[in-house]
Amino acid sequence: MTSNGLWVGIVSYCLATLSLFSLFNEANSDMRIFTREDFTKSHGRQKRESSMEMDYLIKYGYAAPSGLTSPDGEVQGQIGLREAILNLQKFLGLPQTGIFDDKTKAMMRRPRCANTDKVTSGSRSKRYAVMGSGWPKSKITYSINNFTPKVGKENTHEAIDKAFGVWATYAPLRFTKVSKDQNPDIVIFFAKGYHDDNTAFDGEGGFLAHAYYPGPGIGGDTHFDSDEPWTVKKGPYEGNDLFLVAVHELGHALGLAHTPDTSAIMAPIYQYHDTEHFQLPQDDIDGIRHLYGRFAAPTAPPIPTLPTKKYTRPPRRTTTTTRHYRPRPRPTTSTPYTTRLKTSWPKRPQTKQPVEPDLCSIEHFDAVSYLRNEFYVFSNEYMWRKGSRDTKMKGPFKIGGLWPAMQKGVDVVYEKPRGIIVMIKDNMYYEFLGTSVVDGYPQRLRDLGLNNEDFDAGVWWKRYHKTYLFKGHRYWRMENSRADWGFPKEMDIWKDIPGDLDAAFMGVGKSGDNETYFVKGNKYWKFHSRKLQVLEAHDSFKEDFLGCDRVVKSPATGGHSNIPTGAIAAIVAVAILISVALTVCIYRRKFSGYKYTNQRSIPRDPPPPYSRGYESHFENGDSPEERYLWVKSINHGWNNIKYSLQHKV
After folding, report:
1. β-strand 560-561 against 594-595: which pairing, if any?
2. 488: which of 211, 368, 444, 474 fits an S-S bond (Cβ 3.0–4.6 Å)?
3. Three-state secondary structure call for residue 147
4. What is the spatial distance between Cα 212 and Cα 221, in angstroms, rounded to a whole number?
5. pLDDT of 195 above 60
6. CA pair distance 397, 384, nearest whole angstrom
7. Is 416 in contact with 369 (CB distance < 8 Å)?
8. β-strand 222-225 against 186-191: which pairing, if any?
């Protein structure tokens, strides 16, 4: 029994050892899969995915940038993040878990519209959402400037025309297609990447198109990403149907915002609908009728009715008494009939249309900045802009047409990371994502730690990742939309930069990261952000940046002359020719009564009496009166030459 127990123990020990060894090998083999390099790659991938998810929340209006992340990208507030995710899931019709689960991530990867989902300045009624009050007219023009070769010109025009017809079916609107030279209300085109607005396309996938809400200038314009796989009548599994996307984007161009109703055409995520027998969902019908009303029902004109008057026979006279008629005197207090005819309603006062300013004649600008690699100039309620491929400035446009919250103009404009555009007007601070106000804004400058200053200029400095604001000869510094302690300070660090600036802006491109431009009137200074010194100073901001013509200075007056040098030379030559011609005419007139012969000069025979020139034939050509006229004419011609040479013509 003892030997058997011993052998059983030995066998059990061996089996246990073999099992542990096999398990260790399996675990060791599994551990070899996750090396340090693999772990670093996995962590980097998770960090990139987290950054993309944060960008999605910020880009489409579910959270403010400062409320989620710090400059190094780490999550600051888990409560704010969870609330933003819940709002996203609720708007997209997903289970509200408060985390980026698989269903939420899958929905975020689907193609969609580039317009934001959260509308803070619009109004809501039931489920549909509207932005503003729509177009103030019922006849709207549009142009299709180009087409996508993936479906061809004919199919492109047919799909977009059909999309306009969908909205015209349910609202009293009339759409007319015109050429792009006829200043249409809605401009439609296909483009790639940056295309002269604040929203650059991201290639295939991501967002498909975007449109601007009704308004002047760029208002109503609709842009499609030409890199997308556009199709027409191909079904739900082949590309993105151009007709369906056009119906959605034109809804924005007419004033509708995104709706949380997932079955509506104005839902933000692309989804397929039957295009052959397309019916606009009821949520979209309610939205467009909320903006433009319904069709007026035809009413028949009322049938006129004639008044009925019963005729009664007058009673017969039974007496023979004769009565004399006496006319009744007219009242003297009544108004004469002719006077009543001359009475007219007071005329309605006519309001003069505001005159659009000339860019090159503006002396001081309110703000200048690069926004999404486009150059913007602001003055009062107008703005001008120039894309990276443009050769001249475009405008003027109303600022309120692109940013409705800034109807009265701006004082400071600059761009922060993540595409956030900052605008300051009076004592209010705004942050925009594209053209929509970020949640939580505007805010008072006082709430951000700033006095209610009327700032002259502002710029986001990439060197320190901070904002600098200028007023007079002092400057303030901000970080994460809050003023830093210890400011304002004097502008001593900004060597050779004057006070009372008009604008400040950063350069564009890699070299522009170290270049800051300061503008005052027509002067500008190019400042190196690392060396903290002025590199260049010029007196030609309008000529170098705005493309205005250079002005020739007159040396005589020291001012500006609009007459080119060649024109002055031509005027002098013409004056000399006129003087010579006058001299020749005077001498011909003097000797016109004589003819020359070889012997002597004799008078011509006089013409018949009462004919032209009869009396002048006997006038003495050498009279003092005529000599006075000759001398005066010659002096007049000489004075013309002299004044021409003195630039006084």
Report:
1. unpaired
2. 474
3. coil
4. 6
5. yes
6. 6
7. no
8. parallel
Give the alpha-carbon dihedral of 599, 603, 604, 610, to 10 degrees. -170
Contact status, residue 460 vs residue 467, Cβ threshold 8 Å: yes
Q: Tokens for 284?
A: 């979209």
Distances in whole angstroms, Cα of residue 236 to Cα of each of 239, 273, 385, 642: 8, 8, 40, 84
Find, among 264, 219, 5, 310, the residue nearest to 113 by Cα.
Answer: 264
Asked whether 386 and 374 are in contact (CB, 8 A), the reply is: yes
pTM of the model: 0.54
Count of CB atoms within 10 A of residue 340's CB?
Answer: 9
Question: 224: which strand partners?
Answer: 190, 209
Nearest to 374 by CA among 352, 338, 402, 344: 402
- The CA–CA distances, whole Å, from 503 to 36, 186, 230, 427, 516 equal 50, 32, 43, 17, 11
Q: Which residues are known catalytic residues?
A: 249
- Calculate the CA 559 to chain-centre distance: 36
Cβ atoms 423, 413 nearer than 8 A: yes
What is the token pair recorded at 296?
A: 């007026």
Retrieve residue 219's tokens. Answer: 């208002």
Helix (H/G/I), strand (E/B), else coil: 419: helix
pLDDT score of 619: 47
Specify the range with the lowest mean pLDDT, choosing from 131-135, 207-211, 337-341, 512-516.
Answer: 337-341
For residues 240 and 228, the answer to whether their CB atoms sit within 8 Å is yes
- The Cα 459–Cα 519 span in angstroms is 12
What would the mean pLDDT of 455-468 be, rounded to a whole number?
Answer: 85
Contact status, residue 101 vs residue 420, Cβ threshold 8 Å:
no
* Distances 209 to 130, 225, 247, 269, 515 between C-alpha atoms, Å: 19, 6, 11, 12, 34
Phi and psi torsions of 405, nearest 5°: -75, -10
